[in-house]
Amino acid sequence: MTERSLVVKVTAGKDDPERCNQAFTVAATASASGIQVSLWLTGEAAWFALPGRAADFALPHATPLAELLERVLELGTVTLCTQCAARRQIGEADVIAGVRIAGAATFVAESLADGAQALVY
Known about the structure:
alpha/beta, Hypothetical Protein Ychn, Chain: A
């Protein structure tokens, strides 16, 4: 039987806090449920790959983003989009430990893997 996996691509950040938090919540919940999760930080969500940025995000009645990100980092994979990182001048040395930088080919491969489901927020 093929292992199930979930690829979550979040494009929103502080500019759209509810959509952003929803993506992190889905990724963390799936991780906690034993599903292999790959969370992709793109667009304005790219900033959350930097130390302290998730802790600076607040949404009433929502689990803190830093806690959700930590859960996904512990149990899954967090990736910062290569182009998004470059546009923001973010390099490998700048990101939180455990966050990788990768591009579209990796995203497509993960999204099309057997048993994978992809969601974009």
